[in-house]
Specification:
6 strands, single chain, mainly beta, two-stranded antiparallel ribbon, about 80 residues
């Protein structure tokens, strides 16, 4: 996402980087990660009495990985 400062506050806006494809980025539909939008942090004590934090609520979406090959010695990206 893009970050702007509006009236002294940070505002997050979408960054449409996939709309401008880069030829060396390789989509990896076989690798996804759950990410959260929204929600909040709750404090709680675990079974030993230690204070812990956890993210609660929000929406979970799957983010697809993209590889950026780095050429170098003994890599699979170059001959």
């Amino acid at each position: 996402f893009k970050q702007d400062i509006v009236n002294g506050w940070q505002v997050e806006r979408p960054d449409y980087w996939l709309a401008k494809p880069v030829p060396w980025e390789i989509p990896r539909p076989d690798i996804t990660y759950p990410i959260r939008f929204g929600g909040h942090v709750e404090e709680y004590k675990d079974e030993t009495g230690a204070m812990r934090h956890r993210w609660v609520g929000g929406e979970i979406m799957q983010a697809m990985a993209y590889d950026n090959p780095i050429p170098g010695f003994d890599t699979y990206n170059t001959n």
